[in-house]
Specification:
Shape: globular
Number of helices: 15
CATH topology of one domain: Rossmann fold
Structural class: alpha/beta
Number of strands: 26
CATH architecture of one domain: 3-Layer(aba) Sandwich
Oligomer: single chain
């Protein structure tokens, strides 16, 4: 299927024509063949059209991992619209911001989505009806004549920015075609492959790696509602997937919490991304389960991936591999010149996979994409074989179990408390989650608050995964000679805390937290 120059918006028809009875997509409640999937997408496209969605519009979907989310994505594409997936863990205010910023016309989801739709003044499509309408006569032309064009937006993926407000990453169909071509080639995906999706479908990793690349190669997808250590190996043994993609936290759980012999004979490989994985953990996973772990690197702005350790050929643990086919990865010195091999600098990416820009933010786009190069804000170097080694992040972003968290968003919440004079949030190492956000505050003179009060404030205002693991009240926060906060001293613990209390909230369970 990859010889088709632009297949993403007509893929359902292509698959139905090539093998109508072959398996395509399943979750715990619903199994669809290629023909059934095409029919569901056609019906859902008609449902969107009936709600006023047309070419150039945006459809929001707020669902946990399920068949209906994928059906909605292809249905939006069938009418020429873009999809913006909304993380169900967001608060109402956070979700409404995304719906309104993306100018979505419809929210697809459950009763909570219906309430948000009413608040936002947009249409709602109930998840129980997605793709099940009898009104198929008004559906798009099966030939694909009403489908999107390569330059039309396909996905608007929201990712936090340094200002604390999420930005919409604009990915068009040409981006998706380029990225999936690259992954299909690098991973040798074929119609025999079965991916087990355990990452959330509001991220590009789940959407592009596990779903779209597999489907374009002719394979099938098994959707798990979320990762659970209790059910993961049962799914592997039942559905016989050939690969899955996960984050280091999930691999840590698999290594430490698997207590029985497991059958991994169907797995060709496993992918690790979102955050660097310890070399010793890669070794333990490969030796224990007999599955090669392929570590890679990318970001939403690069349509998910830029480098990947090779499936065949030398894999170098401790690196995130060479550039994927069709992409260039380079290191830039602070003055913008190319850094020599082995020298550290900013990681920059160029290729047809680089985003079209940030929605409604031309200034931010111009800063991030310059002369065709995507500036990642990450620091790394290329070794003597051209493999990328990540050193640090230029930004203050915290990666908690694969979820990207920007400190300023948490700091802004802490600053709403009348007693808080100064606030700073940093990432601190965690053996399971990689790192967790920890908040530091200094209080106004003569005023008082408690860690419990600040924790409650964060719980009310932030999604569970963004909430600080700890909040520490200090007499003052460290500053440099010009009065700027020096977060590095907080990370090293150079300023002892006056009050330290662990944050105990429902999201502390690792299985619930490892959803990125």
């Amino acid at each position: 299927m990859t010889d088709t120059p632009f297949p993403t918006s007509t893929l359902t028809h292509d698959r139905a024509s090539a093998g109508p009875g072959s398996p395509c997509l399943r979750d715990a409640d619903r199994t669809l063949t290629n023909e059934e999937f095409d029919a569901a997408v056609t019906a859902a496209a008609a449902q969107l059209t009936q709600r006023g969605v047309a070419a150039g519009d945006t459809v929001a979907v707020m669902l946990p991992n399920c068949v209906e989310l994928v059906v909605t994505m292809f249905a939006a594409w069938a009418v020429g619209a873009a999809l913006t997936p909304v993380n169900p863990a967001l608060t109402d205010d956070e979700a409404l911001y995304q719906v309104q910023d993306s100018t979505s016309l419809v929210i697809v989801g459950d009763h909570r989505a219906a309430q948000l739709a009413a608040t936002a003044g947009v249409q709602h499509l109930d998840v129980t009806a997605v793709g099940r309408s009898q009104a198929r006569t008004s559906s798009p032309d099966p030939s694909g004549s009403s489908a999107a064009a390569p330059e039309d937006f396909a996905l608007i993926i929201y990712t936090s920015g340094t200002t604390g407000r999420p930005k919409g990453v604009l990915l068009d169909h040409a981006n998706l075609t380029s990225m999936t071509d690259s992954l299909i080639q690098a991973l040798a995906l074929t119609g025999n492959d079965v991916s087990l999706l355990i990452l959330p479908l509001f991220h590009v990793n789940g959407l592009v790696v596990s779903v779209l690349s597999t489907m374009r190669a002719g394979g099938s997808v098994v959707i798990a509602p979320k990762f659970s250590i209790e059910s993961f190996w049962d799914l592997v043994e039942q559905h016989r997937p050939t690969f899955f993609s996960a984050v280091p936290t999930i691999y840590a759980l698999l290594e430490t919490r698997t207590t029985r012999p497991v059958d991994t004979s169907s797995l060709r490989f496993a992918i690790c991304g979102a955050a660097p994985m310890p070399v010793d953990l890669i070794d333990r996973i490969e030796q224990r389960f007999g599955v090669p772990v392929i570590e890679g690197y990318g970001l939403s702005e690069s349509t998910v991936a830029a480098t990947l350790n090779p499936l065949t050929g030398p894999r170098r643990p401790g690196t995130v591999g060479p550039p994927l086919p069709g992409q260039q990865v380079a290191i830039q010195a602070p003055d913008g010149s190319p850094a020599p091999a082995g020298h550290r600098g900013e990681v920059v990416i160029r290729g047809a996979n680089v985003m079209r820009g940030y929605l409604g933010r031309p200034e931010a786009t111009a800063i991030t994409v310059r002369d065709g190069w995507l500036h990642t804000g990450d620091v790394g170097f290329l070794d003597d074989a051209g493999y990328l080694v990540l050193v640090d992040r230029m930004k203050d972003m915290i990666i908690r179990g694969g979820e990207n968290i920007y400190p300023k968003e948490i700091e802004d919440v802490l600053y709403t408390h009348p007693s808080v004079l100064e606030a700073a949030v940093v990432g601190e190492p965690d053996p399971l989650m990689g790192e967790v956000p920890v908040g530091y505050v200094a209080l106004r003179a003569g005023m008082h608050t408690t860690v419990d009060e600040l924790t409650t404030l964060c719980r009310q205002s932030l999604a569970r995964y963004k909430q600080p693991q700890q909040i520490r009240i200090l007499p003052g926060l460290p500053k440099n000679s010009v009065g700027k906060l020096v977060k590095g001293l907080l990370r090293t613990g150079a300023n002892p805390s006056q009050s330290t209390q662990p944050k105990d909230h429902p999201g502390a369970r690792a299985e619930e937290s490892a959803r990125s």
